[in-house]
Each structure stands twice: as structure tokens, then as C-alpha cells.
Amino acid sequence: MNDLPQDLIANVLSFTGPRESCRLAVVSSTFWSASLSDTVWDRFLPPDILSILSRTTNASDPDFASNKKDLFLRLCERPILIDGGRKVTN
């Protein structure tokens, strides 16, 4: 398993789901490294995530999310206000 490229493993993980990706991350260090890839978490985010983030003010906050996994988890934990606070993501 360690001989496989990390990009390949990350691509395979991206076809699972967030829960499965996290579960596989505890199986081995190879899966753990691959599970941190933005390739994996980009698949779990909505396709228009950049548009959504452009409509909020707190996305520019450095503590908002440092990578796609953090962004996914952040959005799961609490919705963000968009369009001047008139709408909430869920």
C-alpha cells in the first residue's frame, strides 16, 4: 500500500464519503496523509462553494478554514451567513 502514489489514494478516497474517509484515515498513515488532501474534500463540498464563500464576510477570516477539510468541517458545525446576513447556508 505504501508503494501507491498518495494522489491515487486521495482520488480513491474522494469517491467514498466524508465519514468513510475519516474512518480509513485511522487505518494507516498512508490513508491518513491522503485523507488530508484537498482533492478528497473538494468532492464533498458543493460545486459552487467559491460562489457561496464570495457572498460571506467571514470567509476572509484566517481562522475560518485553512484547507478544504477544515472548510467542510466548519460548514458542518455551523452554517455561515451570506448575502449581508439575509441568508444562511445549511
From TrEMBL:
Organism encoding this protein: Linum tenue
Domain F-box: 1-44
Name of the featured protein: F-box domain-containing protein
Organism superkingdom: Eukaryota
SUPFAM superfamilies, sorted: F-box domain (SSF81383)
